[in-house]
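User: Can you write out an input/output pair for a complex, sequences first and structure second?

Assistant: Here is one pair. Inputs:
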Amino acid sequence: NDRTIIRGRLLSFLRKPESASDEGCYRYENDGALVIENGRIVACGAYAAVRDKAPEGTREIDHRPHLLMPGFIDTHLHFPQMQVIGSYAGGLLEWLNTYTFPEERRFADAAHAGRIATEFFDELLRNGTTTAVAYCTVHKTSADAYFAESLKRGMLMLGGKVMMDRNAPEGLLDTPEQAYEETKAVIAGWHGRGRNHVVITPRFAITSTPEQMEAARTLAGEFPDLHIQTHLSENHDEIRYTCELFPEAKDYTDIYARYGLLGPKSLFGHAIHLSEREADAMSETRSVAVHCPTSNLFLGSGLFPWRTYERRGKPLRIAVATDVGGGTSYSMFATMAEAYKIQQLLGERLNPLESFYHMTLGNAEALSLSDRIGTLEPGTDADFIVLDAAATPVMKLRMETVSTVTEELFLLQTLGDDRSVVEAYVAGRPMKQSLSPA
Ligand code: GUN
Ligand code: FE
């Protein structure tokens, strides 16, 4: 029996915040505790109440004065792009062709894929991200390396072998048949093993022929419980070229609709420049628009019209993500700090409660996994993090002026980085302290 009491200032969301002062959307315990056992949370509440119910002599770990919250969730990033972050390029297509495609070719080599997988999972945990949804490369070896590393660490991770059979260099292309067979092999080998989830992953319409899009449709039909991920409407040159490649489609979104790829488990990276018709198609199918703020700014892709999407008669489901290596940080703090600035430029506000809701419960809901992750509810997986809003000299000084939890969250978002993540627990096990030094 490995029952443990974890004490700290607890914060978790119960539902989406309705305003910046919505006190009912979260639970906060100034002296709170979790009880964890066999990788699950079994109790959550005020420390005194939790301790009274625990057997005499139960082990205790005290994280006060730090915040305890659910682990962060990153809903879109690229595992093989660790070594292209911050590559100097004009826009998306130039960036892909000049840096990203050549780099991804290296993942045919299992040793390279294994080395980067170790670094990748270390970096996620350093930043407090306990679940992520990643693109691997076209090579099955990359997916094998990714899921093996995830299994070793006991993490709830989603990912997929990329399907791409055109408009990319030699060594980075499969065929419709190969994409179908290898995706099936990845599903057979990894889906449901440990906490792994395999995702059907056609990269985007530019790099899949109609025949390969058909293969994606077939996979989606055979495995209706699996998530699907792709890119949508990120950049004007991309949109123009995509529509040329599929002249029969009404617009970019309609291409994916024609191949049966819209739905409540479908994650569309970026989705910045959607027409009204496209936004309707997304909301009617409960598809998820995945906002990637640092990437959108770095590649100059555009300003995600968050409030426009949300204020529609039929609101879009929205998730948030880093999109590393188009994105420039693994940190969900940096990600939401940039999301905030994008909304500032659009004359809108994104309040700190919303930000932290989206990094945790919001992203869990977007993945239909809030019964397992994203909260501190008893019965869910013990994936949680310990945060210090005074981790640096500047933060410490600024904290002297902070009096509410909301202000503390905003400070963490604006100034925080991996130094603010004191610990990351995965299925009840502390993972960060044992990593090799950053
Ligand atoms: N669209 C297709 N592939 C990619 C990628 O790797 N990164 C980004 N940002 N957009 C893409
Ligand atoms: Fe991406």
